[in-house]
Amino acid sequence: MSCACLVLTEVVDDKEVKSNHRSSFSSSFPTYSSSSSGGELIDSRRCRSERIFPIYAMGSSDSNRNSTKVIVDLDSSEDPIWDSIKAEAKSEAEKEPVLSSFLYASVLSHDCLERALVFVLANRLQNPTLLATQLMDIFNDVMMNDRGIRRSIRLDVQAFKDRDPSCASYSWALLYLKGYHSLQSYRVAHALWNQGRKVLALALQSRISEVFAVDIHPAAKIGEGILLDHGTGLVIGETAVVGNKVSLMQARHHIRRHW
């Protein structure tokens, strides 16, 4: 099987500002034309694959395809994404009564997206020496006092719903998708790192890696509107920078389908 090393394109404010790739593929893989400013693929399969997997890295900066325009106003009393999540959870509880307690505890008992996410993450990451109640206190303190994170968790969940074909609703990302969980857990660790609480940030990094198989250094810089599909085996190092509106697709066995 051929292998590849990819350096993601950084996308900032809808503009591609860095594009590098190093690859070692068999001749059956599609190639890029260096004369094209958009990194246009010679292989016609890209046209078909991008309808399913819109890529905002490695040669395409068209971030509006198949996506919903979202404006996050944290000062407004309205939160349409949170309203949708509650409606979805209520509907799912009616369809699957066996999950009603889980859905109530995870979503319907909370008054905002932040607190629901805190509950979900704390219960995913807890262990005998790092209790769920301790994690909830840490996560709640960070999220409720960081407007950047509050904005990012909404733009990220919108990215999952818009750009991940396997994510049918906002609540699916919030409750079940470890790519979303690991990304939001990283955001808390990153905030702690910037506060000087580096030991706690590294402890969270270790636990995130153990639970989700995603290793993101808390000093790494990651933008908003990110889709992290599965993420199993993903490593993002201390000096890495990932821009806004980037999709990281799982492509171990079927690289061509994402190009």
UniProtKB/TrEMBL annotation:
SMART domains assigned: SATase_N
Chain residue ranges for the region called Disordered: 21-41
GO molecular function, one term: serine O-acetyltransferase activity
Composition bias type Low complexity, residue spans: 22-41
Domain spans labelled Serine acetyltransferase N-terminal: 81-185
InterPro entries named among the record's database cross-references: Ser_AcTrfase_N, Ser_AcTrfase_N_sf, Trimer_LpxA-like_sf
Cellular component terms per the entry's GO annotation: cytoplasm
PANTHER family, sorted: SERINE ACETYLTRANSFERASE
Record's subunit section: Homomultimer.
Name assigned to this protein: Serine acetyltransferase 2 isoform X1
